Amino acid sequence: MPVLALNDLYMRYGDGPDVLHAINLNLAPGSFHFLTGPSGAGKSSLLKLIYLAQHSARGRMRLFGQNISQCSRNEKALLRRRIGVVFQEFRLLDHLSVFENIALPLRAAGIKREDYEEDVVELLSWVGLGDAINDFPRTLSGGEKQRVAIARAVVAKPELLIADEPTGNVDPQMAIRLMRLFVELNRLGSTVLIASHDLQLVRASGAPVLTINEGHLSPPKAPRKRGLT
Ligand SMILES: Nc1ncnc2c1ncn2[C@@H]1O[C@H](COP(=O)(O)OP(=O)(O)OP(=O)(O)O)[C@@H](O)[C@H]1O
Ligand SMILES: [Mg+2]
């Protein structure tokens, strides 16, 4: 059973035109895909649809085997908890420290601080933010915020990880390091979908690539060479 199955799906914002057209997509459990396409093509819109922040205008969507059109608000909230998301605009909580931001999904899962503290500290050090553990988001650079957002998305080892331009604000070396986090998460069994403009990184990863153009999604292209994965 696919983690995600989209069938002939359309999406629009309000009364606007369709921004996604006839989307068909299956993500198998444990798969790793990139999503590329020009600015404005619909990458973020597709990801928003997948993490249930937007509705489809028509078409069918199953997430973790559940038919989304039949899910209650509560059921959707529970499904959302199984997804780790790196938002394009980070969405950190300004009144919480770096540590607290990252620990949020663990707290939401009811895990006790003493059981996750070490993991959070280790993850922070992996993303190069060991010294920023007690800092607040407003004092961080864009790239630092992005790393906090990534750490928060992966810390609870979600079944599905969705990342929107997760390396858009960091240097190429850090981008490779962050990509390793996603690869490692994928090795542990998570299904991963990453929207990225960074063609060099996408190619180096060797993962299959989905391309979206003006709201139309092309089927995955086979990897050309293996690199990070
Ligand atoms: N909140 C919104 N309300 C109305 N239209 C929107 C909204 N967000 C995006 N759009 C429109 O949907 C289309 C797809 O935008 P989207 O943000 O999905 O593109 P993208 O591929 O993520 O681009 P980028 O690479 O610049 O992030 C664009 O035409 C955009 O203008
Ligand atoms: Mg976008």
- Judging by the overall fold, what is the CATH architecture of the largest domain? 3-Layer(aba) Sandwich
Mean pLDDT: 93
Q: Report strand order across the widest sheet.
A: 6-7-8-3-9-10
- Can you summarize the main beta sheet? 6 strands, mixed
- At the first level of CATH, the class of the largest domain is Alpha Beta
Count the DSSP helices.
7
Number of domains: 2
Which ligands does the model contain, each kind named once? adenosine-5'-triphosphate, magnesium ion
* Unreliable stretches covering 5 or more consecutive residues: none
Tell me the helix content.
Answer: 25-40%
Order of helices and strands: EEEHEEHEHHHEHEHEE
The termini sit apart by 23 Å
Please state the structural category.
alpha/beta
User: Roughly what fraction of the amino acids lie in strands?
Assistant: 15-25%
What would the CATH topology of the largest domain be?
Rossmann fold
Walkthrough of the structure:
The chain has 229 residues and is of the alpha/beta class. The protein has two domains: 131 residues, Rossmann fold; 69 residues, no CATH class. It contains seven helices and ten strands. The strands form two sheets. The chain has a six-stranded mixed β-sheet, with helices on both faces. The chain has a four-stranded antiparallel β-sheet with strand order 2-1-4-5, with helices on one face. α6 links the parallel β7 and β8. 38% of the residues are buried. The chain binds adenosine-5'-triphosphate and magnesium ion (MG). Adenosine-5'-triphosphate binds next to α1. The site of magnesium ion has 4 residues, from α1.
